[in-house]
Amino acid sequence: MHGDQGQTSWAYYFNKTFMNKFTVLLLSLMVVPAAVRAQQASTVLVDVDHRQTTSLNGEWHYILDPYLAGLSNFQGAINQHGFFEDREPEAGTNTTAKDGLLEYSFARSPTLKVPGDWNTQREALLNYEGLLWYQRNFEFMPKPGSRVFFHVGAANYKASLFVDGKHICDHEGGFTPFDCEVTSVLHDGKNFAVLAVDDTRLADGIPTLKTDWYNYGGLTRDISLVTVPTTFIDDYDLHLSRTDHKTIEGYVHVIDAQSGSKIQVSIPELSANSDVLVDANGRAAISFVPAGLETWAPGHPKLYKVEVSTGPDKLIDEIGFRTIEVSGSKILLNGKPVFLHGINMHAEAPYRSGRVNTDADVKTLFDWAQELGCNFVRLAHYPHDERMTREADRRGILVWSEVPVYWGIHFADAAVLAKAEQQLGENIRRDRNKASVILWSIANETPSTPARTEFLTKLAAFAHQADTTRLVTAALLVHNGEGAQADTKIVDDPLGKELDVIGTNEYAGWYEMSPEKISNVTWDIRYDKPVIMSEFGGGAKAGLHGPETQRWTEEFQAAIYRNQIAMLNKIPQLRGTTPWILMDFRSPVRVLPGVQDGFNRKGLISNEGKKKLAFFTLQKAYKENALGKAE
Ligand code: GCU
C-alpha cells in the first residue's frame, strides 16, 4: 500500500499555480481541509481481469483546466466549489442550490471515451498538456460484507480520485494500475465520480521532461469497480522451481485473514491441490509437485487454470509454468539455451494512433510480430496494457517489460528513486504470474554517472528482491574506441555488474556511418553475460523508394538491416535482438515535413500498416534462423 500522497499532490498543484512563493508558503503552512485531503492510499489489486468487476468505461464528461481553476479560487485558497463537487443546476433552473452562481457544469460539458488518451479524440486536444477533469455518475451499492475498490488501469501522469466531493486517493505514474477503496463513500442511487488527471511532464518525474514518444494524457486504460470480500487475496506468486523444474513454489498473501486460516491452491486439470495455513501476517508459503505438469514455452504456451481460494475469496488465474535463468553468457528457458528473436513495440495503436487499449490493437501488434518470426518482444519504454502480457502468455511470446527510467532522470533525488521503485513494484505486482515476462528492465539509455549508477544499483536490487524468479536488465549506451579503435563498440557501463542480462542500443548505419560501413564494426563487451541488442535500425518513409544510398528510402533502411544482421552474427554472446521498432509511432521530436510529420519513422511497418522492405529482410533472417545463436 502506498503512503498517503494527498498533501504531496495538493502541494504540487499549488506550486504550479499562478500564486507567488509567499502565497505558496502561506498555504503550505495551512492544514489541508479534511474535505480535500486524500482519505486512502492506493494499492494494486492482483488478477483484476479475473475478478468480479463493474466497468466504468464509456463516456465521461470533461473540463479542461490549464490554469488549475478547479483546485483553488483566485486568492489561492482551496475552492470550496472545486470542480469535484456535484453542482449540477436544479431541474428547470440555471442555478444551483448553494449560491446561484454557476460557472461550470460537468453535465453540460462534452465527453471523452474512457479508456482513451485525450490527444487523439479531439483535434483541439492533440497538443493539450495539463490538468483535465473527468466526471461521470454511477449507481453502485456494495454488498454487505464486501469491500469495493475503484480500479484505474492507468492514468497518465498524475491522478486524483474524488467521489461525491470526497478526495479518495492520488497516484503518480502513467503506465501502472492503482486501486483505491471506496466502500465507505458509496451510497444508493447516483454516485458522482471525478478523476483529475494531469499529464504535465515533470523534471522529477519518471519519465522526465524529454522523451522520444508522445505524452498521451488521460485515462488511457480500463476503469472499473472491483468487489472483494472483507478477507481477500492481496498478492500471490506461483512459479516453477529453477532447482527441479517440477515443484510449484511461491506464496499467497491475504488481507485481514485469521492466523491459521486455510488457503487452497489447486490446478483442476492436473488434479493437484495444496492446502496451507496463513501465518500471523496473512502469508503462506506454497510448495507442491503436480504430476504431469507441462512447461510453458514459445511454441507450447501451456496455461493452466489455477484456483487460489481462502473460502470467502477465490481467484481463477491462467498461469504458465516455466523457468528463466542465465548460465554464463547463455539464457536458459526451462533449462535449455534460447535465442530471442524480438522486436520493440511502443504502446501505439495501429492505424488510429493513440494508446493501445483494446483487444483488436493487441491482436494486430502480435499478429505482425509473429508474422515477422518473433518469439520475443520488448515492450518499450514503460509497462503496457495488461492485455499485452495476457496475449503474450496465450501466444507463447517472451516479454522484456520496462519502467520509464528513460534518459536524463533526476538520479540524485531520493524522491525520484522512490517513484521508480513504486512504478516497478506496481508493474511486478500486476504481471508477476505471467510466464511471458522474463525480464524486468530498469532503464533505457541513461548517462553513466556515479549518481545514475548508484540509483540504478538500488533499483536493480529492488527488482531482484521483489522477484527472485526473473532476470533484471537495462538498455545501456555503448561508446566507440579511440583512433584505430573508432569502429569498436565498447560495452563497459558499470551498471552491467548489477544486471543478469546486458541490453545495449546502437544505431550503426543510421546515427553513425553509412550502411555498408557497418561491416567494419567490432565489439568489445567487458561482461561474460548474455547480451541483447535492445535497439538498432533506422528510418524510412513507407512508399519512398530509391537507391540504397538515399536516406529515408525503404531501400536504405533495408540495407541497414542487411548489414546489421551480418555484424551482429559476429558477437559470440549475443542472445537476443529487438530492432527499433515494429511500427512508426507519434513523437513530438520527429518533425521533418513530408517525411516524419510528427512520427518516428524507424518502424518496419508504417502507422497505416504498410510493411517496408526491411520487414522482409529481418523476417527472412528470423525464419531461416540466420540471426544469432542460443549458445
Ligand atoms: C533511442 C531511444 C528510443 C528512440 C530511438 C530513436 O535509442 O531508446 O526511445 O525512439 O533511439 O532515436 O529513434
Q: Which descriptors would you attach to this protein?
A:
single chain; 631 residues; alpha/beta; Jelly Rolls; Immunoglobulin-like; TIM Barrel; 3 domains; 8-stranded parallel β-barrel; 6-stranded antiparallel β-sheet; 35 strands; 16% helix; 29% strand; disordered N terminus; binds alpha-D-glucopyranuronic acid
Structure explained in plain terms:
The protein has 631 residues and is α/β, with parallel strands linked by helices. It has 8 helices and 35 strands. The protein has an 8-stranded parallel barrel with strand order 23-24-25-26-27-30-32-33. The protein has a 6-stranded antiparallel beta sheet with strand order 3-2-4-10-7-8, with no helix packed on it. Strands 1-12-5-9 form a 4-stranded antiparallel beta sheet, with no helix packed on it. Helix 3 packs across helix 4 (386-395), helix 5 packs parallel to helix 6 and helix 7 packs parallel to helix 8. Residues 1-35 and 77-81 have low confidence and may be disordered.
List strands and helices in order, with pairings:
Elements: H1 6-16, H2 21-28, E1 53-55, E2 58-64, E3 111-114, E4 131-139, E5 146-152, E6 155-156, E7 158-163, E8 166-172, E9 178-181, E10 190-198, E11 218-219, E12 223-229, E13 232-240, E14 248-255, E15 262-267, E16 272-277, E17 283-288, E18 304-309, E19 314-319, E20 324-327, E21 330-333, E22 336-337, E23 340-345, H3 359-372, E24 376-379, H4 386-395, E25 398-402, H5 414-431, E26 437-444, H6 450-466, E27 471-477, E28 479-480, E29 488-491, E30 501-505, E31 522-525, E32 531-535, H7 554-568, E33 574-577, E34 585-586, E35 599-600, H8 613-623
Helix pairs in contact: 3-4, 5-6, 7-8
The chain binds alpha-D-glucopyranuronic acid (GCU).
The site of alpha-D-glucopyranuronic acid has 9 residues, from loops.
